[in-house]
Amino acid sequence: MSGIDNLPPLRAVIAAHDLAAKKSLGQNFLLDLNLTAKIARLGGDLTQYDVLEIGPGPGGLTRGLLAEGARRVLAIEKDPRCMPALAEIAAAYPDRLQVINGDALLVNPLEHLTQPIKIAANLPYNVGTELLVRWLTPPDWPPFWDSLTLMFQREVAERIVAAPGSKAYGRLALLAQWRTDPTIMMELPPEAFSPPPKVNSAVVHLTALPAPRYPANPGTLNKVVAAAFNQRRKMLRSALKSVSPDIEDHLIASGIKPTERAEQVDLEAFCTLARSLDAARTP
Ligand code: SAM
Known about the structure:
Blueprint: H1 10-16, E1 29-30, H2 33-42, E2 50-54, H3 60-67, E3 72-77, H4 83-92, E4 97-101, E5 117-122, H5 128-136, E6 147-153, H6 154-161, H7 171-179, E7 180-188, E8 193-194, E9 201-208, H8 218-230, H9 236-239, H10 247-253, H11 267-281
Parallel strand pairs: 2-3, 2-5, 3-4, 5-6
Antiparallel strand pairs: 1-8, 6-9, 7-9
The structure holds S-adenosylmethionine.
């Protein structure tokens, strides 16, 4: 028996179900249930929430979320080998855990969840950034979720919270900081996982803002930021040439020097630039 519930310790679960970690699925498992409960608590009070978990694996974080009182957990896991272990957790928490064996990039979780919703995951490295960008870029805001509590490689976590002028500052920082409040809550060394990854990890908590920090059309902002950082060494007047033939005028009108580089420009100025471009397009 383990500390947080009456289920067997995770090492025993992995041995019983022969869950040797697969690198191709980004499998680095957390085996310390006190740690997974602590990560679950970083998501705040879960008792009124449905929680979406991506990649439960043998279920360490899943058990943390349930033990911390999540109203319901929907766990989407690609690896069919994990299904029997997850079924044992579902049996121990009747009506509170639903498991889908599928690819999180293809399953629509909204068919199975009731709001309010929080998302928590120790994300598979190969799909983590793609999922985060999807959660941050719906056409309308607020999104279907209230907060994200996500484990990433530390380098990705630093890109999410980065400030202008820093090396890590780029599209991910701008997308995250435009519509959420992101904070690094906890850092974990490789030894916290089995097998240990080559890099350090960190948990980032992102709370959805009721409205974006500054007004801008999401499509335009995304296009401008992507173009600006695709050629981050270039001056903005050339990096953004493809966005508008009058880009120099728009930059000046937005208070940005055309000779500046993307990494020197803050979120507010990028939003002003997106609005200036849209205003010029309106007939
Ligand atoms: N949550 C577990 C933990 O903390 O120990 C496992 C985390 S492990 C880093 C990532 C998990 O995501 C693995 O169980 C892996 O099989 C699963 N996974 C990988 N790609 C996936 C995908 N596209 N959709 C759903 N699950 C995926």
